[in-house]
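Figure 2 data, in text form.
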Amino acid sequence: MQKVWVISLGGSRIVPNEVDYNFLKEFKEMIERHKSKKFVVVTGGGSTARRYIKSLQKLGQKTKNQSLIGIYVTKLNASLMTKIIGKEANETIPDNMHEVKNLLRKNQIVFCGALRYKEKNTSDGTAANLAAYLKTSFINLTNVRGIFDKNPKTNKNAKFIKYISWKNFYETANKMKFKAGQHYVLDQNASKIIMEHKIPTYITGSLNDIENIISGKKFKGSLIFG
């Protein structure tokens, strides 16, 4: 049973509109139940980042500046999570993967946002890179059950996809045009990384199912593998 897990925690789970205290309390309790495991959690920017990005779009700012403001929000969310988790978490927010690895030696859980600017990348790409760097699996905790062939929030007939290969997922993700703050289960860069490094990747919307995944039990969600 693997000891270290990389989790991408969508900003929409942390701050859907207001800070979701109940969810964050449940997240902390989950970590406390798995003291034998270690976690690296990459926080997204969610709707907060998208609001800031949209304002820069209206001002005609270039995509890089839009992405940079999103990165700042991911780091703010990471800082919030360290305070909520407390002594088991890192005090400082890392700026690169080497710092993440060092902090993981001293802490049960390490939170970070996007580590640096990279063209056509989101916090999911950061999480995928970390999973490759740490040679571990990757869980994306988002606000939907898993992967669908269409947006389930706007299409009643959206079909749920339980299993999909790395190659097929990569092809699906790359049919979309990248934009800063995009909202999809994994970005195009992340889909390429998990395919190239053959990283088992789980997509779920439930903390209970994260526990099932790390315990090797059946879970409700999607698996990108093979």
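Caption note: The radius of gyration is 16 Å.
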